[in-house]
Specification:
It contains 15 helices and twelve strands. The protein has 521 residues and is α+β, with helices and mostly antiparallel strands. The chain has two domains: 126 residues, no CATH class; 319 residues, paralog of FGE (formylglycine-generating enzyme) (Alpha-Beta Complex). It is elongated and about 120 Å long. The protein starts with a helix and ends in a 5-residue tail after the last strand.
């Protein structure tokens, strides 16, 4: 009986091992099949054809085929995943990014209408950097100094190597069009003057407008066919800054002060490309003339062409959005000041940038609310989780301001909006505007409660006011303050010394001019 029991136990153990081995074998086969299926699935969903199943971006395939990553002398073809995902050698990063972006794309494809998406905005550098890992560029481009590379490229790539981590530089900061061709993008230095060529000199103004009363007037720019409207802003006293209970305020906007400003004239709209290219054509040179050296006495008859104006920018600074009456952008504060010098000497009047106090006084137009029109910041702002469910009310604000919700990710012409109570357009949007004050967060705390015509002269950066074409409504408030970020806005400029005329890394900046009443009356 014991022998029989022993045999029975061995048989049971042997049978158990057989079953276990069979289960493990089947499991391995199934596992291998699943792994192979997943691999083949991953391979399929890494093809260009699969990417385009969900990516319905207009012209995406056409622009890719025209780019140097497809249309090149070597015949090399670079696919979607080569640029938009980390290198496959970095297995974990590659597949986690693929899963994350894939789920996001599928969700967007199923729940959103592609006609409602702002493709222009998605093509901008600020958005593109989120989807182009820098290591993917370097995975193919091992040598930044190949045989035959230009001197300009060597300088630029040396700048990149020395500052990649310190300045957080990315390859597409300078090569945005290599994956999808953009006819308006160029990293080459601009040649010529992109302005309307008018040969009929009878259309040119012979002299500047004579002003004999404190009233709106249209300034005529001698030697050009261009003119612009100046609004008479009366002297007055207002409360500058924002109260502590104003939504989205910053500490730099207080304490509120009682400020008196003298009368002045202010341009109805931001300085246009027409005017700026006229300035560029008259003054372009390689010279370097400091603003304070030229301002001296504009009542005489100086040689206007003696002012050294901007050097040529890289590419077209209008970004291909259009010239004409659209606001001129990407110039430095120094360039804006130099424009004011030139305009002063051309017209015999004293033109300059507005003080911060003049700007806020003019923007408010006699009101004391967050905006010069009815409404509250939280009503218009798209900040916060609830705004994903309940969209902000944009009807009122969009009629007065070009900003993130109605700009199509670019500047627009002044005719697109209504004026404020003083008759000034787009004070709160389209482009942020330079002031003549230096920026200091504690500036308001360092002056008395009652001040007259204040100008703050302490600080490293310049004050800029007003929101711009990609701002949220919270940044459009009359009291909102911001400042230049000079070094950051020149991150990708490889020149040594860097340009004093054009910013390479910030587009949404412009200016409008003020004319001192005492200089004409």
């Amino acid at each position: 009986m014991q022998a029989d029991n022993s045999i029975t136990k061995k048989d049971k153990k042997r049978a158990f091992y057989k079953r276990t081995s069979f289960v493990l074998f089947v499991g391995c086969v199934i596992g291998l099949a699943i792994a192979a299926s997943l691999y083949q699935t991953a391979v399929y969903f890494s093809t260009d054809e699969s990417c385009m199943l969900c990516h319905v971006h207009p012209h995406v395939e056409e622009s890719w085929k025209q780019s140097v990553h497809m249309n090149n002398k070597s015949g090399t073809k670079v696919s979607c995943v080569d640029c938009h995902l980390p290198p496959v050698e970095n297995t974990w990063d590659h597949y986690t990014a693929k899963a994350k972006l894939g789920l996001k794309d599928v969700w967007g494809y199923l729940t959103k209408d592609s006609a409602d998406l702002n493709w222009d905005e998605k093509s901008q550098l600020e958005n593109a950097v989120k989807y182009i890992p820098n290591e993917s560029c370097k995975n193919c481009h091992h040598n930044l100094f190949p045989e035959g590379v230009t001197d300009e490229a060597i300088i630029a790539h040396l700048h990149y190597e020395d500052n990649e981590k310190a300045l957080n530089l990315q390859c597409i900061s300078c090569h945005l069009d290599v994956g999808h061709y953009d006819p308006y993008y160029s990293h080459k230095q601009m040649t010529g003057i992109p302005q309307l060529q008018i040969t009929d000199s009878s259309l040119f103004y012979k002299e500047a407008t004579k002003v004999d009363a404190f009233a709106d007037f249209v300034e005529q720019l001698p030697g050009t066919p261009y003119s612009f409207k100046m609004i008479a802003v009366p002297e007055g006293t207002f409360l500058m800054g924002s109260p502590e209970n104003e939504s989205f305020r910053s500490d730099s906007e207080g304490p509120v002060r009682e400020v008196t400003v003298s009368r002045f004239f202010m341009a109805e709209v931001e300085t246009s490309w027409d005017l700026y290219w006229a300035f560029y054509a008259a003054t372009m040179s390689e010279g370097r003339t400091l603003p304070e050296q030229v301002y001296a006495n504009n009542s005489s008859n100086p040689d206007v062409d003696g002012i050294s104006g901007p050097t040529a920018p890289f590419g077209f600074p209008d970004q291909g959005w259009g010239l004409g009456q659209r606001p001129a952008i990407t110039m430095t504060h120094y360039a804006a000041e130099t424009f004011c010098q030139w305009l002063s000497l051309k017209t015999g009047k004293k033109y300059r940038l507005p003080t911060e106090a003049e700007w806020e006084y003019a923007a408010r137009g006699g009101t004391d609310t967050p905006y010069f029109f009815e409404g509250k910041p939280r009503q218009f702002s798209n900040q916060g989780f609830l705004r994903k469910i309940f969209p902000a009310d944009t009807d009122v604000i969009a009629s007065y301001v070009i900003y993130g919700e109605n700009s199509n990710a670019r500047t627009q012409e002044p005719s697109a909006v209504k004026a404020n109570p003083f008759g000034l357009k787009n004070m709160l949007g389209n482009v942020s505007e330079y002031c003549m004050d230096k920026f200091e967060a504690s500036a308001y705390q360092k002056t008395a409660y009652r001040v007259i015509d204040p100008v703050h002269t302490t600080g490293e950066e310049w004050v800029i006011r007003g929101g711009n074409y990609y701002s949220d409504a919270k940044d459009l408030r009359c009291a909102g303050r911001d400042h230049t970020r000079h070094d950051e806005w020149l991150r990708t400029d490889p020149q040594q010394p860097k340009s004093i005329w054009w910013y390479s890394d910030f587009k949404a900046i412009g200016f409008r001019v003020v004319c001192e009443a005492d200089s004409v009356l």
